[in-house]
Amino acid sequence: MHPARPITLYGFKQSGHSHRAELMLRLLGLPFAFQEIDIFKGAQRAESFRRLNPFTSVPVIDDAGTVVADSVAILVYLASRYDPARTWLPTDPATAAQVQRWLSVAQGWLAFGPARARIIQKFGGQYDLAAAHTLAERLFKVLEAELAARPFLVGDRATLADIALYSYTAVAPEGGVALEPYPAIQAWLARVEALPHFEGMPQ
After folding, report:
1. Would you tell me the crossing angle of helices 93-107 and 71-82 to the nearest 10 degrees?
2. Is 145 within a domain?
3. Where in the sequence is the domain holding 44, given as residue range(s)?
4. Tally of structural domains, the chain
5. What would the pLDDT profile of 180-200 be if each residue is shown by its tens digit?
6. What are phi and psi of 31, to 5 degrees?
7. CA gyration radius for the chain?
8. In angstroms, rounded to a whole number, what is the distance separating the alpha carbons of residues 190 and 39?
9. What are 78-97's pLDDT values in tens digits?
10. Phi, psi for 32 (deg, rounded to 5)
11. Number of Cβ atoms within 10 Å of the Cβ of 45
């Protein structure tokens, strides 16, 4: 199943949230046009973008008039709309709940741990670096244990859970969070990167 015309993705290439949406589009083999929203120049506060997302954050997609804001909402939309086999977002209640658990982790622990540390170290964000590093360490200890037991976060194949957590985990070293202590996480990153049509975040 493909859209009648390319999906427009409004995003910022250095944003892990934006990368999630772009990666999902690529993994599903969907045609899309990327429109850069330079958040460092305040483009997200322009009135034209506010009409798409009043919360003024990227990413946003426009699929033939269906506008979806928020990276996790976009993942759910794309998987529900364009993956009829529901491999990325299974319909089984127990498995779906496990995927949702990790989507919540992506918006919580990951966002306030590794992602925030990267904002501080790479972009000069004014947050508490020690607190971000503490959260990152706690998160990665849990991830390491989970991924030592299975190849992907929810079973034997990739789901939205893996896409939601991949981007900011992969670039965690940019925030001063080393990945060397976590061999299972490193192996998982390699498995995600081996998926057909994968493309990483620009450095």
Report:
1. 150
2. yes
3. 7-82
4. 2
5. 999 999 999 999 999 999 999
6. -75, 135
7. 16
8. 30
9. 999 999 999 999 999 999 99
10. -150, 155
11. 11
